[in-house]
Amino acid sequence: MSVRRIYWPAINLIGPGCVKEIGAEIAKLGLKKALLVSDDMLLKHGVVGKVTDVLDASGVAYQVFTDVKPNPTMQNVNDGLAAFREGGCDFIISVGGGSPQDAAKAVGLLHTNGGNIADYEGINKSVHKSVPIIAINTTAGTASEVTINYVITDEIRKIKMVMVDPNSLAVIAVNDPELMVSKPASLTAATGMDALTHAIEAYVTKGAYELTDALALKAIEFIAGSLETAVKDGGNLEARSGMAWGSYVAGLSFSNAGLGIVHSMAHQLGSEYDVPHGVANAILLPYIMAFNLDAAPEKFADIARAMGKDTAAAETKEAAAKLALEAVQELSRKVGIPALKDTAFRPEDVDKLAEQAMRDVCTGGNPKDVTLEDLKSLYMQAYQG
């Protein structure tokens, strides 16, 4: 068997109310002042306040920075770095979904490594570990709180820069479903389908192996069993807990196995049209699953079973594999995922989008090798519905 290098945070807190334990963990680490990185929406809706209440009760000093866009930009990162340094901070607390988490990772790495964030696009580009990050997740989707990945938008070139770097890993990951109950149905659906995409891509990617396979399948079970209820009954703590676990376990899987072209293509929709990342993934997922089915039919049959499909009556392994596609399409309809034609997507941009997706670091992990023409075709299939 091959040697595996496995990454996830040293400390992981998960379950209702677990955010209340961060004060004790900060004291153990001897940290003094945090830059709390979040966004204006979470500040407005009181989620940031729930965290600062814990910090106040624990006597932890902090400074709040909420200038993070839904697709965080280089300017957001530079502003966050300035706030970190001007505030005399020595660690970061990130509060939110993927955007605050990714911005926090970029700030933490820039502080210790210097330069411009664009210098770190790609794989393992930094030398030094980030400042300590306590990553508090508020959406069951991106799993950025547990991964070695982060994505920053280059607003000049209009591309999403994907970084894969163990030095960005948080020291503590926090998944408290009580922080997720206030999320609107549309956001719950988008982030939940993002988590499902992580698990499915991790399971079939070229980089998958025994541990990531086990994690990915369990994540698919969690999500398939919880997402519809979480969308339709946002106050259901059991469903929110199931999604917290599903997102978290999917993150552990893909952070160690990699992803595929659902993500490389979705990144372009986010950078070009500001389509939320989870929505972009959910829109593209069925079309790319159909493209990849013949590369791993047995694995897609496993996915079908994990999503509750009975594959025993399928006459061929290909027929069993197609049940996975059917299950994803059914779930997407139930949670209200829009169509690509309902976004700002422009067919005349397809050449540019495909070329950028071809260069994305996720493309190499796809279970099936792709050409530029394949990517163009997939964008258009999704557009035409």
Report what the structure shows.
- The protein is an alpha/beta fold and 385 residues long.
- It contains 14 helices and 9 strands.
- Strand 7 and strand 8 form a beta hairpin.
- The radius of gyration is 20 Å and the shape is globular.
- The N and C termini lie far apart (43 Å).
Structure described in brief:
This protein has 385 residues and is α/β, with parallel strands linked by helices.
Task: Give me some keywords for this one.
385 residues, alpha/beta, 6-stranded parallel sheet, 3-stranded mixed sheet, 14 helices, globular
Estimate percent helicity.
40-55%
Radius of gyration: 20 Å
Give the averaged pLDDT, no decimals.
Answer: 96
Strand order of the largest sheet: 1-9-6-4-2-3
DSSP E strands, number: 9
Distance between the termini: 43 Å
Secondary-structure content class: alpha/beta
User: Given the structure, what is the number of helices?
Assistant: 14
Which outline best applies?
A: globular
Order of helices and strands: EHEHHEHEHEEEEEHHHHHHHHH
> How many strands, which pairing sense, and closed or not: the largest β-sheet?
6 strands, parallel
Sheet-strand content, in percent, reads 5-15%
The stretches of 5 or more residues where confidence is low (pLDDT under 50) are: none
